[in-house]
Structures are given as structure tokens and as C-alpha cells.
Amino acid sequence: MATLLRSKLSNVATSVSHKSQAKMSGMFARMGFQAATDEEAVGFAHCDDLDMEHRQGLQMDILKSEGSPPLEGDIHYQRDGTGPLPPSASKEACSELSGQGKPKITAWEAGWNVTNAIQGMFVLGLPYAILHGGYLGLFLIIFAAVVCCYTGKILIACLYEENEDGEIVRVRDSYVDIANACCAPRFPTLGGRVVNVAQIIELVMTCILYVVVSGNLMYNSFPNLPVSQKSWSIIATAVLLPCAFLKNLKAVSKFSLLCTLAHFVINILVIAYCLSRARDWAWDKVKFYIDVKKFPISIGIIVFSYTSQIFLPSLEGNMQNPKEFHCMMNWTHIAACILKGLFALVAYLTWADETKEVITDNLPSTIRAVVNIFLVAKALLSYPLPFFAAVEVLERSLFQDGNRAFFPNCYGGDGRLKSWGLTLRCALVVFTLLMAIYVPHFALLMGLTGSLTGAGLCFLLPSLFHLKLLWRKLLWHHVFFDVAIFVIGGICSVSGFIHSLEGLIEAFRTNAED
Questions:
Q1: What is the largest CA-CA distance in the chain?
Q2: Where does the chain cross the membrane (predicted)?
Q3: Nearest CA among 28, 95, 96 for reference residue 58
Q4: Which of 112, 183, 188, 384 stands the most exposed, by the fewest C-beta atoms within 10 Å?
Q5: pTM score of the predicted model
């Protein structure tokens, strides 16, 4: 009788954990760019290491023994101070969960995820890229779409290998697995650590961008108020400070759908206003030459707007028919290319040389305030997602990685966050504020992030991994494409990073003098 009761309790708890994974993994796989509806979220229940590390950075519960305490509520993460399970145990538990009739997502649902990931609010900086790049900027929007689509496909190809019977089977689950396989056997964990560092940088920089854009939008919405952009950033950070106390994102997830809908409405409003001024479009202002000093920054902006590779392994693993992945990537990136190109061109033609870093700042004051307030609300509600993900990755890597942890566990035996752990969370929020105050330049920060982590995760690493793992089976044109993408991506990354860094240093000095 006791054995039967324990078995039932274990099944119920496993079901709750599985349901929690489905909801939260779906949320973070979109990093705040997509609503976490039940139909879409269930597809991300797959126990994918990368999805947990980058998109949410969460260590989902796996019931390890009969004495484990039951989960509370719909979304709850137990921390017993013992660190994560060994890799072998984690994979076995994931396999056990995945075999319980887990729902899969269709190609359309997968495409919805990708579309929202590459059509976020950061497309508002694309017209500024056209300002410094002209027609070459438009070409790069198309070129980046083609390259990111290709590298997404070859990244998925790195997940598969032939078995002894000549069948193609999936032997890896995540970006981290691919990176570790490329560095094995000499450095079996080096690749995963590099990918994790890139993830953390991108997550923290995304948080900084949300603070910067909030301060910028509020300052330009109410220019007559005696409040500076720095002060607005401080106010925004004060609103965000409770993020340090987050244990889960159940409350925040309720606003995800509203944020996504609001963003699409804002894009439509901007395009509608631009079309209303079609007679005044300045076609002669679109240049065939580039601003050598500022155009590399535009490259980073464009690349950053296409970053989605990091969660593609999880997405493909949860599709009902993985063979449709290539087709899904084609139509999502074609749609993104068309929409981004039209949005950037139409907006630039409307304001020409007056185009600002965030295009909504160019709108008339009558509608600017309303549109910007919606954008600020979206930015503030989106901030907890990358922040919580970054915190979880840092905590697990530095404080909860078993014997390999650099510091003592920041959670007590009862699962509560220790005071110094809370202090570190608050320090991370304050750090994003300081960066936003001293470098309040949306385009520069976006360009730096795109050149550093965006180009690395979308261009350099996929092509390098593809060559390393599958070079014996590649056709000559695949080898040529991979080498070309690696070289071109490396040049663009270095050039964009240097120019963005120079601009940030100059801006930092200017703000320090003021």
C-alpha cells in the first residue's frame, strides 16, 4: 500500500514538474518576444540544456528520491543546496519525462516562435542603420537573413550523426553539446563555457538596452518636464528593482501576450504614419555610399535583430515533423527580411537625415507620447526575462555547480536565497543602471552586442562547428559557404566591435566630463 501511494505521488509530482517545464521553457525560448500561450508553450517541454541555460537559465526540478518534498504551485523551483544532478542522471530523467506522450509543436507554431524572436522591439533601430548605410544597409538586411537562415540549418545538422546502421540519428540536444563535441576530447567543456559566456553577455546587454530605451523614450515623450534621460533611467530601474526578489516568472508571464500585441500595433502605427507622408519621401537621401566610421555599428544592429540560433536546437527537437524545419526557416526569414527591409526603408524615407536611434522618437508629439509609453511598458515587462535568465546561469555556474562551483551555494538548505545572494542580484540591477546612465546610446550598445555575441553565435560558431564535425561529408560548395561566412562574419564582427567600442568609450568620457 505504501509503495502504491509513493508511486502515485511520484507520478503526480512528475506531471506537475513537466507542466511547469512546458510553460516556462516556452516563455524563455522567446525571451519575452512572444506570448506564452498554452498551445505554444507546451512544445518547449523538452529537457534541452541550452534552452534552460540561455532562454531561461533555469534548473527545472527532477524528483531525485522518494523523500523529495512535493512541488508547490504550478511553477516552483526547488533548491536544496546540493547542486544539479550529474549529467547522466539528468539525461536519464529527461528521457523518462520526454517519453510520456509530450505534445509536439507544428511547423507553424515553430515559425511563430522564430518570427517573434527576430521581430522584437529592437527592429526600431533598423532605420538608423539605413541612415549610415543607405542601400548597402538594405542589402545587409537581406544578406543577414540569408546567412542566419543558412547557419540555423547547419547548426541543426550538427545535432545529427550516422549510427552503425547508416541511419541519421540525433546525438546532441543543444548548442552547448555541439560546442563541447567540437572541443572534445582535449577540452571537453571549453566550448560549452564559451557559449555560456556569450549567452550571459547577450542577456545582460539586453537588460541594459531595456533600461536605455526606457529612459530615452520617456525623455523624448515629455521633453518639457525638468527630468533628464538619466533620471528617467533611474526611475525605470527603481521600478525594476523588485526583479531581484523573483523566484519565478508566473506573474510576469501574464503580461507577455499583451506586450506582443502592443508591439505589433506600434509597428503598424509607425508604418501607417510613414505611408501617410509618402508624397514627401526623400528618395534622394538614400545613399549608395556609406559612413565608414558609423556603418560598422549598423552591421551589429542588423545582426542583433536576427539572433535566434541559440534556441533553435530546442525548437527543432520539439517539432512534430523535424523534416519541416528547413522549410520553416526559409519562410520565417523571408518574411522577416521583407518586413524589416520595408519598415527600415519607409521610416528612413519619411525622416531622412533626421532619423533617430529609436525611430518612435521621430513621431509627432501628439502620438509620440502614447506610442512611447506602450514601448516603455513592454521594455519594463520584458526586462525580468533576460535578467532572471542571466541570474540563473550565473548562480548555477558560480554557486551551484557541485564541486566545480567557484563560490559557496547562495541558497540555504531550506531553498531560500541567502542575504548575500540577494545583494548580488541587486548589484546586477544596479550595474545595468550604471551602464545605461554612462552610455545612454541605444544604437551603440545594440551594435556592440550584435558585433560581439550576435555575430559569434549566428555566424562564426555555427560555420566553425559545421566544418569541424561534418567536414568529411560536406560538398565543396558547403565548405566554401562555411569558410566565406566565417571570414566575412569575423571581419564584420571585429570591425563593428572596434567602432562600437570606440563610440562607447567616447560617450563614456563625454558623460563623465558632464
A1: 83
A2: 136-160, 200-219, 255-275, 295-315, 327-349, 369-394, 422-439, 445-467, 479-498
A3: 28
A4: 188
A5: 0.71
